[in-house]
Amino acid sequence: MAGVGRVGKEARRFVKESGDLVGLARITAEMVISVADVADACRRDGKPRESLAALRELRELLADLRPGGPGGEPGPGDGGADPGGVAGDTDELESLLGSGPSVGDRADA
Questions:
Q1: How far apart are CA 49 and CA 42, in angstroms?
Q2: Could you give the CA distance from residue 95 to residue 18 in angstroms, rounded to a whole number?
Q3: Domain boundaries, the chain
Q4: Angle between helix 6-17 and 48-65 (nearest 10)
Q5: Residue 86: CB partners within 8 Å, gap ≥ 6?
């Protein structure tokens, strides 16, 4: 790996701060890190469309880790907490997702 980019670094911090994840939440967290690295690599390689696609996938994975998501803890009124879910706030990581290239951005511009 050529180095961890901005999104990958933030994804690793998010997963670390999420605590001990088990089961589906752990798998999803590892996918978050991998997809974040792909997004960074695409950005470095000047591939804005691929980077944008990876960022979209990352956003979906983060939604899965949110309370009530398939890998996260049930939200209020869901009857309790699932072990291994993530109760943390994903706003900071998602703010980085909005900073990626848009379709039509040119790497050489």
A1: 8
A2: 17
A3: 6-75+86-97
A4: 10
A5: 18, 19, 21, 25, 29, 65, 66, 67, 71, 72, 73
Q: What angle do CA 75, 78, 80 make, to 5 degrees?
A: 90
Report pLDDT digits (tens) over 39-98.
Answer: 999 999 999 999 999 999 999 998 888 766 655 555 444 444 444 445 555 566 666 666
- Whole-angstrom Cα distance, residue 30 to residue 7? 14
In the block, which residue shows the tokens 């690295």? 37
The pTM assigned to this predicted structure is: 0.63
Ramachandran bin of 78, using left for φ above 0, alpha for ψ from -120 to 50, beta for the remaining angles: alpha
Over range 2-29, report the average pLDDT. Answer: 86
User: What is the distance between the terminal CA atoms of the chain, rounded to a whole angstrom?
Assistant: 26
Q: Is 68 left (phi over 0), alpha (psi -120 to 50) or beta?
A: left
